[in-house]
Predict the 3D structure of the following.
Amino acid sequence: MPSSFTRRSVVLTALALPALAACSGGDVAGTDASDAGGSSGAAADSFPVTVEHLYGTTEIAAEPTRIATVSWVNADTALALDIVPVGLPLVEWGGNDNQSTDWIDAKLEELGASWGSENAPTTYSEADGVNTDEIAALTPDLIIAAYSGLTEEEYATLSKIAPTIGPLAANYTASWEEVLTTVGTATGRSDAAAELAEQLTADLAAVGEENPAVAESTFIAASLSTTDHTISIYSGDDTRPRFFTALGMTQAEVVTENTADENTFYFDWSAERGDELVSDVLYTWAAAGDTVETFQDDPLFAQIPAVASGALVLTPDDHQTLSISAASVLSLPWALENVVPSVIEAAQTAQA
């Protein structure tokens, strides 16, 4: 069985290259403000609560105060609910200089738990898979892997350490809304989670409402590789189509017609048939150094209508790619500021 990080790399090579995808709280504490990590504020819901996931149900008897997380998205979600995890994974793909993300760093600062402070969470590597030893050493009372590729065997191992929320959907396809709702329930903050979801959904929808060119545009979310001229198209429940749809755009018919079933989150496409990828806007992540001109100057990719018309959207670095590929309630507001302007520009070009 390959390691979790290997699977995660494939998905973020599926998150990037599918060769296959509030207000500030009070004390930041476990039991008092001197503890590293833990909850901020108090749960509003009553306990026990039960949450469902791929591997069954998990009962949480009391409000968790020492939460550890696995994979991407889960720590973001706890932080958005003003909970500082006692432990979270290093961001070893697409991270910033802190091996974190800009959105995590900003929220930790808001909650008085900046890196290097006594309230900062412990971090651990997942380069060799789920880091059960480091997680166990933190004596968590809840482990969150709602967004993950956790196997049933790994789930069983973590469940011996603490109640564990397994993946809500296979292969890192749980939506940010599903994760937020589940973590809100598990931590007694279901009302806060619902408010966050409502606000973010409205903020995303406002892009199309305030920019008619966006609402009028069709899109394809893809991965174009300039090294071997492969094309992969994201579809179905993948996070990238969800992102563009949430902005008010419509997925191109060529994607819908070639998606095998609802469980297909990507499919390959021959570069020689690039002219058939008809859409107003096309999104791709970009390798370091690639620009719009890189794709426009490539004879195969230049056949793609959106590339030829200048309506190509790039995320030119892994950090931007991560913000929509491992989309969370924390990363998407960052993407609204750092990715969406190029989407609006491309849509305006397409509709000119």
Notes: The mean pLDDT is 90. DSSP finds 15 helices and 16 strands in the chain. Residues 4-190 form a domain with the Rossmann fold fold (CATH 3.40.50.1980). The CA atoms of residues 75 and 119 lie 15 Å apart.
